[in-house]
Write a structure and sequence with these properties.
The complex is a heterodimer of chains A (about 110) and B (about 110). Chain A has strands spanning about 5, 10-15, 20-25, 30-35, 45-50, 55-60, 60-65, 70-75, 85-90, 100, 105-110. Chain A is mostly beta strands and about 110 residues long. In chain A, the strands form two sheets. In chain A, strands 2, 4, 5, 9, 10 and 11 form a six-stranded mixed β-sheet that branches. A five-stranded antiparallel β-sheet of chain A has the order 1-3-8-7-6, with no helix packed on it. In chain A, strand 7 (about 60-65) and strand 8 form a beta hairpin. Chain A is globular. The N and C termini of chain A lie far apart (about 40 Å). Chain B is mainly beta and about 110 residues long. In chain B, strands 2, 4, 5, 6, 9, 10 and 11 form a seven-stranded mixed β-sheet that branches. A four-stranded antiparallel β-sheet of chain B has the order 1-3-8-7, with no helix packed on it. In chain B, strand 9 and strand 10 form a beta hairpin. The N and C termini of chain B lie far apart (about 35 Å). The chains are: A mainly beta (about 110), B mainly beta (about 110). The interface of A and B includes residues 31, 35, 40, 48 and 90 of A.
Chain lengths: ~110, ~110
Amino acid sequence: GQQLNQSPQSMFIQEGEDVSMNCTSSSIFNTWLWYKQDPGEGPVLLIALYKAGELTSNGRLTAQFGITRKDSFLNISASIPSDVGIYFCAGPPHFGNEKLTFGTGTRLTIIP
Amino acid sequence: DVKVTQSSRYLVKRTGEKVFLECVQDMDHENMFWYRQDPGLGLRLIYFSYDVKMKEKGDIPEGYSVSREKKERFSLILESASTNQTSMYLCASSLGRTGFEAFFGQGTRLTVV
């Protein structure tokens, strides 16, 4: 099946730093979703993007739907300890397809 | 809030056993999914159901089957568990047609010994 490439695979940052991660695809996506997974739990939806160029915020999180429709970006400002976890991008690979393809994830660790 | 509940958080089974993983959602969602999560591989789709008794294979269906007799319940079956099926299993549901956003259960960590 199609895969989404996320980078970086892992990040080690200090509390208070800003975080940027991205997700790329070889084909066009019409919807981009960003999820966060806490250790030992299921992923939780953070932000949904539906239109090329769209910029959406959820608190300290901001996500963008790339203009080419082949990528998306997630930024976290002023990171705090509870931001630790794995961040996944996801989307339906074809228009009208209701199955989601997931990226390989970015693991965020905050150094005390 | 959507609630997706998986029957077990942790399971330990023996090689060759038949294993049932159960999932229930309470929001009348059309679609239900089973994913498998392994380190470095992200979430891989095992099976997808878009209606009662309807199912579609995902990317890695080998060694698994599913059952959806009622809209709210989606079961994943390991016909004969093997050690390479040790993994985290995640169930999800989505509205369907007008809503792609998937909502996940808490996950079942299965160990096959």
